[in-house]
Write a structure and sequence with these properties.
Elements lengths: L2 H11 L1 H15 L9 H27 L26 H17 L2 H40 L10
Helix pairs in contact: 1-3, 2-4, 2-5, 3-4, 4-5
């Protein structure tokens, strides 16, 4: 796979988190404020949305630049991605998506979106444990084991 094809595949795969963090919350809420929140909660929500979106795009970029592949299981990376946000936490894309949904819940004052974010988080955890980690362990062996020993799955470490 070339970086160009990796970039195209990765851009195409953005439809998945776009659906989970964009379309579904829109369908659930109609983007209408259900319970108005105070200014601090809305500002925090906007920060989660902006920060989560930036983190997601950065993590996707690492798949192209460092991994020469995509986040899609059908077109995986050629190299283990351990740079950028991946130096702090093993699953920044998943955390970013949950952060965006949580931010939307805060901006819109919609507790249903928090429930949805929790369901998304549990689904992602199950996918990581049942499929992603065993697959990466088979593909990258000792390199992945060393990475897992140093970098936490969900709670980012403070120093890379």
């Amino acid at each position: 796979m070339t970086r160009r094809s990796a970039a195209l595949g990765t851009a195409t795969f953005l439809v998945v988190p776009g659906t989970v963090a964009g379309l579904v919350p829109g369908w659930l809420t109609g983007w209408e404020v259900s319970h108005p929140q105070g200014v601090p909660a809305r500002i925090a929500g906007v920060c989660l949305i902006v920060g989560g979106t930036a983190a997601l795009l950065s993590a996707f970029g690492r798949f192209v630049i460092d991994g020469i592949g995509t986040p899609a299981p059908i077109a995986p990376t050629q190299r283990l991605v351990v740079y950028g946000l991946y130096r702090f936490v093993r699953n920044p894309m998943y955390l970013a998506v949950v952060g965006v949904i949580t931010g939307q819940a805060m901006v819109l004052g919609d507790p249903g979106l928090l429930v949805y974010a929790g369901g998304v988080a549990l689904t992602m955890h199950a996918f990581v444990v049942a499929y992603e980690e065993p697959t990466l362990r088979r593909e990258f062996r000792a390199e992945y084991d060393a990475y897992c020993a140093e970098v936490p799955r969900w709670l980012p470490r403070l120093h890379p």
